[in-house]
Amino acid sequence: LLDADGTTRATVFAEMSALAARTGALNLGQGFPDVDGPPSVARAAQDAIAAGVNQYPPGPGIPELRQAVAAHQERRYGLVLDPDREVLVTTGATEALAAAVLALAGPGDEVLTLEPFYDSYAAVIALAGATHTTAALRATPGGFRLDEDALRGAFSDRTRLVLVNTPHNPTGAVLTRAELEVVARLATEHDALVVTDEVYEHLVFDDAVHVPVATLPGMAERTLTISSAGKTFSFTGWKIGWVSGPAHLVEAVRTVKQFLTYVSGAPFQPAVALALGLETGDGPDATWVRDLAASLAARRDLLCTGLEAAGFEVARPQGTYFVVADAAALLDSGRAGADVPDGATLCRRLPGLAGVVAVPVSAFVHAGSAADAALRTSVRFTFVKREPVLREAVERLTAWG
Ligand code: GLN
Known about the structure:
Layout: H1 12-23, E1 26-27, H2 39-50, H3 63-77, E2 87-91, H4 92-104, E3 110-115, H5 119-127, E4 131-136, E5 138-140, E6 143-145, H6 148-154, E7 159-165, H7 177-189, E8 193-197, E9 223-228, H8 229-232, E10 240-244, H9 247-260, H10 268-277, H11 288-310, E11 313-315, E12 322-326, H12 328-332, H13 343-354, E13 356-357, E14 359-360, H14 370-374, E15 378-382, H15 387-400
Parallel strand pairs: 1-13, 3-4, 3-7, 7-8, 8-9
Antiparallel strand pairs: 2-10, 5-6, 9-10, 11-12, 12-15, 14-15
Helix pairs in contact: 1-13, 2-10, 3-10, 4-5, 4-9, 11-15
The chain binds glutamine (GLN).
């Protein structure tokens, strides 16, 4: 986790947000919304603080939130969970991922992820002392897809965990049922457990459908499902997440989690319980999440069209906050300067060139991997910003590109 010279390193998101703050560039790097979540949910947290919900909550999370998670999984996906033994509240999805990997993998084990992968995966696999293996996604004109041969080739008899992410950060791919069936079959054949990061479960566009891994035949018994309130309800700073699955696996995660943070977010837990139930009522925020997904789809269109006009090649995302754009043609044309060979260099220059910040896709790959080579000139932009911000970014990029 340290650089080769032993110095510590900020995450690419922190580095790029600092660059945006320093240069005044528009920040399409780190994925966080510039509009907060449902007002009724924010009020519920304020009310909880005023009512004195300010001390340690119970270790597994407050019962009403665990019940709300279980009810959500059943209502949405037909997954029946015991809220007392099969649901655990965590400090965001980040802690759920860390505790799950630390609980289930160790030295000698391989943890298999798709590549590119969300940056914390590599870090927690390293913290667990396990080996990180990857299966590169394949770029197609319609977006990124699972590569069955790459996935099969990445499995071994030491594969202990498969860490899936759908909808996928950074590519915006929403894995299809058929793709997930391939993952499920290979995981079962190799007797591997599955940890699935579904934090963007509600942020899918067009006719894409989110399929939870745990709903595939035979998979519930070997799958831990992780999600959080950050993306679904636009409260990324609250850090309320959860993990659900078989009691013995959830218990293992809780054993680790209790020594990471123990508990967190007391007044936010009842607010998120309320948020998860909004769609079942007829209050003013009942359609909030659906409306967010629809507006994100429109903002995706705005940004993708603009990026294409500016000279990027865009892999159209079906979900999430993000689009991966290939700058190869722009770099070849010399418009970024003669000494800009890749996306990482471009991202450091982009504030000066165009007044926009993006994140290099190199932050989501292993240096030297096949995915690294394929994505060397690619950068990630977020479209979870207000339309005027996106329009301004597109204008600046088009004026430059
Ligand atoms: N998940 C967000 C992203 O991918 C950032 C979260 C973070 O900064 N760790 O941009």
